[in-house]
Amino acid sequence: MTKFDFDESFWRGEPRFIVLEGDEGGGKSTQVVRLAEWLGEVSDREVVTVLEPGTGVLAAELRKLLLDPLMTSIGTYEEVLMMAAARVDTRMHYVMPALAAGKWVISDRGELSTIVYQGFARDEGAMKFVKQIMDEIRVVVRRGDLYVVLSIPYELSIERLRLANKLPDRFEGAAERFRHRVNKGCEMIEQIVPGEYRIARVDASLALDEVTQQLITSIESSF
Question: pTM, whole model, 2 decimals?
Answer without folding.
Answer: 0.94
